[in-house]
Amino acid sequence: MATLTVKFAVYGALNKGNQDASQVRNVKDVLQVAIDRKQGVVTINNTTMGGDPSVGNPKHFGAVVTLDSVDRYYACAEGQTIDFFHNKAPDQNTRKVALSEVLG
Questions:
Q1: pTM of the prediction?
Q2: Residue 64 phi, psi dihedral angles, 5° rounding
């Protein structure tokens, strides 16, 4: 079986939507353990991510995971499930955007 290596992963929210009140946790190691234990299929929630970094707020997740020497990018909302072994390669599920699109 291929090897998945978590390079970066965060889980959290902006407290009450306040842009100056980020409540986020580095979940790189927690995600690696979850991927290894669950054969790559992980539901992103407070339990699997090691706790609630932003009580009362809907959380979001982002990660960079290497599979077969290829970096793959992931993002989802709290409660969603990701199959890290069976997602498309980055050029198949992303598109390049201008910075102005991201910033509005």
A1: 0.80
A2: -120, 120
